[in-house]
């Protein structure tokens, strides 16, 4: 591991201080290239316009015509939080524009990923014959499904953000909106699936106004931004300027009470990771709302999550949110059992010269293998695939990568090395999914390792941890932590992390999975509580050097207290 202090411009930091930022927040923001507080605002006027997004205008015209002709639309969603919020955005927006629209979401265990032929057949079973399929957060790699839809006389509009296949190119849809497609010059390639469909609806709103067509009274696409904020944070896409504006604008609406009942219910559900929607921050989405929605797609049906987001009745939304929280607790137990087994296999695979990790067990639950892959990648810092066996005999896998190793490009190379091995695959740089032919595990292990050896370097494999310097004793205050919580943090715009040496007064392992390290620390005369989740190794004693974040908790007397969240023990 390579530890470094994030460089920043003292001139930019001083300007931010003059604009009202605290010195600590100013240096943190300057280290992320921020020069003015105005860059942090959710000002929609600072968004890239929808006219820059290839296919958005064509999609708006196509959908406006479909609404005018009263054609029946079916939204085909994905089964993660991004897909669920994208579906809710599409359905809410299209209904406000007067469309005849329903939705469906594939069962990951039955239909696989994306608009497969079986999903098209499922759409045809919906009440009333569908005429247009609109994909959200999927479709860019659905060549077979789109061909099948067209053979049945259906039109397909694709909205997605994943990378298209370098081998097969683009599918034959009526319209494709995807910032990652060739020829798209949209400045923000990091849009999540929910962001893409929101942009399409923005273009559609302008198109309907141009045609002087009716829109539901008082409706504006900006009202859907709370859903965009939740989906974008949960999908861990890079938070470039455009995504930060979308998220901040969505958070502003949630905090102001302009929020759908489902989001409010998801924020307050369960006994753990609850939060006040009026003070919602991105970590509340990442560790509370997002996992609750994702759990439905992993263990049951994402339709529960989508219905929660679509509900306008508080009691109904609360009941669905509590069900989602229960499912998430079940997911955590399955995940823990699976991780324990998978890590043991992974440890056996990591030998001298091994650059990748591919582990397989026929009985692992397909709904949690992506999480398991992420955990193993965190522990061993290697591109990782976790595979399980489907009832059909095919091998289904989920992969997670490290910075500098593009997982989707790597799978394209595997496909060239072993034609026919992968029945289907897709994803992006940091996460991908794959379906292998029956019995293909060993061949995939060999091919993926060959690609990893070609692409990985010692520099890439040397994990880099950047910190924002040190904090003095008086900095460990609720006021400091509160100020650091305000901006939108996430992938590519990381939450502030600091590095200091502390003295361990006491430490113990707790938690339902016995992997939570709780410590009482001392620094500069301050006594502090600290927690490290998913701890491995011995319990620290004496002086320790920690990489940590500041977190706010509330003590039994209702007072705000600073708590350290420990990322690394050096």
CATH topology of the largest domain: inorganic pyrophosphatase (n-terminal core)
Q: For the CA atoms, what is the radius of gyration?
A: 24 Å
Silhouette: globular
Number of strands: 17
* Number of alpha- plus pi-helical segments: 18
Strand percentage lies at 15-25%
Q: Which class do the helix and strand fractions yield?
A: alpha/beta
Distance between the termini: 9 Å
Which CATH architecture of the largest domain is right?
A: Alpha-Beta Complex
- Largest sheet, spatial ordering of strands: 3-2-4-5-6
Total domains: 3
CATH class of the largest domain: Alpha Beta
Q: Specify the helix fraction band.
A: 25-40%
Biggest β-sheet, characterized? 5 strands, parallel
Low-pLDDT segments: none
Give the mean pLDDT. Answer: 92
Describe this structure in words.
It is a single chain. The protein folds into 3 domains: 2-6 and 464-569, OB fold (Dihydrolipoamide Acetyltransferase, E2P); 45-258, inorganic pyrophosphatase (n-terminal core); 350-461, Diaminopimelate Epimerase, Chain A, domain 1 (Roll). Helices cover 40% and strands 19% of the residues. It contains 18 helices and 17 strands. It has helices spanning 10-18, 23-30, 56-68, 81-96, 117-124, 143-151, 193-210, 225-234, 241-255, 261-268, 282-299, 303-310, 314-349, 369-380, 407-417, 441-455, 458-461, 478-485; strands at 2-5, 72-76, 100-104, 132-136, 155-159, 175-177, 357-360, 384-389, 395-400, 422-427, 431-436, 464-467, 498-510, 516-523, 526-532, 542-554, 560-569. Helix 10 crosses helix 13 and helix 15 (407-417) packs across helix 16. The mean pLDDT is 92.
